[in-house]
Amino acid sequence: MTNLPSIKQLQYLLAVHQHQHFGRAAEACFIGQSTLSSAIQNLEETLGCQLIERENRSLMFTDIGEEVVERARKIIDDTMSVKELTKSYKNPLSGKLTLGIIPTIASFIAAPLYQACKKEFEALNLVLVEDTSDNLLDKLEHGHIDMAMLALPYRTDKFHTQVLAKDHFSLVRHADYSVPEPIEDFNLLPEQSVFLLEKEHCMTGHALSACHLNRSACINPFEAANLHTLLSMVEYKNGVTFLPQMAINAGILQGKPLIATPPQDHAYREIGLIWRRTTGRIRDFRLFSDFVRGYISSQCQAKADSMK
Asked: Which part of the chain is the HTH lysR-type domain (predicted)?
């Protein structure tokens, strides 16, 4: 039988590639550096080629080494999916599930969703991670999280995407700040009167696109780091902003002299869950996404009923 690399050797190789340092990689794998170095050397002998160039305290992956790393990552993913598949089959939605959520969703749904999941799935250990869309996609690709909840559209071609709900935008202004109504073109708002989040927050791009706002003179150059700073600018009558219904339903405007007016063209972003196509927990993730979709819908409906 052909001598093949072991899963353990490939895991060690990925650790060295991630940390770009034998010592740190060994610590991450909870083994000694000599054990790690020996395993990598044995892997190179098995494959018959050099994967890593070593010089004093530095290292560099060879061209073939980089290709092997990519193949190794897929092998590890496929191997993990086999284990996840059998575990999911025996005990649906049990064990640990790490869910990444972007800040402009997490602020309004993370806590109540976490509590609802604890009640619904007693055997599930839900771990939440809040981060930007780009960071969550990177963590998902490298297996640091299992799923991510993002605002769409976004570049998620590598992953399976499940749309959960539409989250409509409203124009938010101070009660004493006058704007022409109805507003048919938001680009005609007063100069530098529209306040938005930093570009790192995808909600800015979604608001600009959904409300057909181009970066014209009406956009204020100030970029807020969070929604509360954004609302402070509006509360002091400096201008207006756009908020998703999820934030409004969560009571972010409660106690403030602010008015939310839905645009006439029903501008919205979509809320979706994404996961790796190679996962063995598809059954789990579909069950979870069905629950989250129902939860978001029920919350929005309950809020709508209370406002009648």
From this structure: 5-62
| CB distance 52 to 40 below 8 Å | yes
Give φ, ψ of 62 to 5 degrees. -75, 170
State the Cα–Cα distance between residues 53 and 61, nearest whole angstrom. 6
Q: How far is CA 107 from CA 28, 174, 252, in A?
A: 32, 22, 10
Q: What angle do CA 289, 248, 102 make, to 5 degrees?
A: 45
pLDDT tens series, the chain, 308 aa? 468 899 999 999 999 999 999 999 999 999 999 999 999 999 999 999 999 998 877 899 999 999 999 999 888 887 876 776 666 566 678 888 999 999 889 988 999 999 999 999 988 889 999 999 999 999 998 888 999 999 988 888 889 999 999 888 888 999 998 887 767 778 878 888 999 988 777 788 888 887 777 757 788 899 898 888 999 999 999 999 989 888 898 889 999 999 998 766 678 889 999 999 888 788 889 999 999 998 887 765 545 454 44
Q: Cα(45)–Cα(180) distance, rounded to whole angstroms?
A: 74
d(C-alpha 246, C-alpha 164), whole Å: 13
**What is the secondary structure of 64-122 as a DSSP string?**
HHHHHHHHHHHHHHHHHHHHHHHHHHHSTT-EEEEEEE-HHHHHHHHHHHHHHHHHH-T
**Cα separation of 170 and 261, whole Å?**
5
Residues 6+ positions from 56 with CB-CB distance below 8 Å: none
Half-sphere exposure of 82 (CA within 13 A, CB side): 5
Residue 166 CA to residue 182 CA, distance in Å, equals: 23
pTM: 0.70
Give start and end residues of each alpha helix (H) in 146-235. Answer: 202-210, 227-235
Measure the CA angle with vertex 213, ends 212 and 217; round to 5°. Answer: 155
CA separation, residue 280 to residues 70, 78, 79 (Å): 19, 8, 9
